[in-house]
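Reviewers of the previous submission asked for a worked example of the structure-prediction workflow described in the proposal, so we include one complete record here. The input consisted solely of the amino acid sequence. No template or homolog information was supplied to the procedure at any stage.
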Amino acid sequence: MFTVMNEDGEVNMVEEPSSGYIYTYADYLKWQFEERLELFRGKVFKLAAPTTKHQVVAMKLHLRIGNFLEKHPCFVFVAPFDVRLPVKNRKKDNEITTVVQPDLGIVCDASKIDERGCCGAPDLVIEILSPGNSQKEVQLKFEIYEEAGVNEYWIINPVEENIVVFILNQDGQFGGGKMYAGKTISPHFIPELKIEIRDIFKS
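From that input alone, the workflow returned the following structure tokens.
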């Protein structure tokens, strides 16, 4: 169970993912979380606490990407930042059942950005693994980002100091992941943005 406070100051208990109830973004907006949560297809998932190394990697990536994008039409966002992933064109608050907070995201379509975050698939999603991430959570996010049409997905392992990159193919599926370690990496759609992998893992 998760404890949340609604807009009237009432404390409610929210069921864990085993519950049969499907929560929506409309429910999510009413809560004042005591914990950081995400919605995966209407189920509530608690976000793992990030490690220091996780935060160092996120900060370095944000600085490197943000500085580059100052002269580029795309935007980079860092968690906590809500990304609503509607199914097809079901974009009303009570129709959206997936709300995630990727560690970083690049969005090149400004029409997807509003005061509440991003509505629609970012062009690039970056997730940095923490020890608390379960295999189920990692697999679910992979499926959710693929289904939503995220063009590029990076999974960063700060312990093993590598990055696995997935690119959405013409069939709407992520192809086999390609691992990068100890070399330069660039987003597929912004090849001129070059990131030295060794640098982002330095303390």
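The two ends are 36 Å apart (CA to CA). We consider this example representative of the routine output the project will generate in years two and three.
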